[in-house]
Amino acid sequence: MEKLKWGLIGGGEGSQIGPAHRLGAGLDALFEFTAGALDHRPDAGRDYGQRLGLQKDRAYGDWQEMLDREKNRKDQIDLVTVATPNSTHFEITKSFLEAGFHVLCEKPMTMTVQEAEDIVRISEKTGQICAVNYGYSGYSLVRHMRAMVARGDLGAVRLVKAEFAHGHHADAADADNPRVRWRYDPTQIGVSAQFADCGIHAMHMASFVTDQEVTTLSADTVSCIPVRTLEDDAMVNFRMDKGTVGRLWTSSIALGRQHGLTLQVFGEKGGLSWSQEQPNQLYWMPLNGRLQTIERGEADLSPEADRSTRVTIGHAEGMPLAFANIYRDLAEVISAQKEGRPIDPAANMVPTAKDGLRSMAAVYAVAESGAKNGLWVDARPPIFQ
Length: 385
Fold this sequence. Notes:
about 375 residues, 2 domains, about 35% helix
């Protein structure tokens, strides 16, 4: 496979997400870090890019300069990752797609449903891949859960329970901390805070593993710290298109919880349970059987799990490795498109613009339902209704 050229927008020095993307993109040597506009301060972005090894003429001051220069190069980048503040995702993603670049956008993909629908249409019209970084779907045992559901091990799925609850914004004294405050500011984050930040990861995970889409939902949203305009806790009940019932809790004030992403799936013939903080173990309870522990890396797992296992059994699996699986899948999808060949089925699991659109529709549905005391509302994007 020919090495692909990769560019990064955002993720500058001190960024929480930038290192995970650089590690993920570089792990398999399928991508070469070739270009970047890493900071909203042009000089700082250029300097940091060069310290990371970018050539001087490809360490850009801003994304517009990067776009203008890269689109006119014969050796232009194959994929650009957008890891900037939420409110900038739409403009940058749209511009690069229209210029002929494949894009991996951080979540949420856009700020509105209409913007998300526009991205889906642009991706379809141009033929460019628009992926969304629901990176937790890259974990090996999450993919094994999906495989077990697909091959019928659980029978019909009756119930899925998802959580993404942490306690890192529980201190009311942090209300004016700039690193926290923006997350609850409608002018910067949109109509939802905690659900848009973390809840959509849990909801995407439920859809990814069950291969079902959310159709309707009812939400109870609350600002437990009263000065916040947007919610810091939400409980969401939902229904899926093949009859599965869903329960989702997301919170940023749950003291004692750290990362807090968990998923449980209950079917006619068995149940599964997985936690992101203990990603090496998947718990499987067959009907009328005994609780079993499935270990990441053990023999006789699914091809999807085998492909996404990076370290030997017993060693810890981490978030950058999950991100690396997203990047490896993207490399396969892009290379298959270039070479005009079928995609490896075990790699064809990249979250797409349609997933980003469904998440944004769910964000607006949660905000609407929460404002109407839990009224059940349609959670589907208009173009999918």
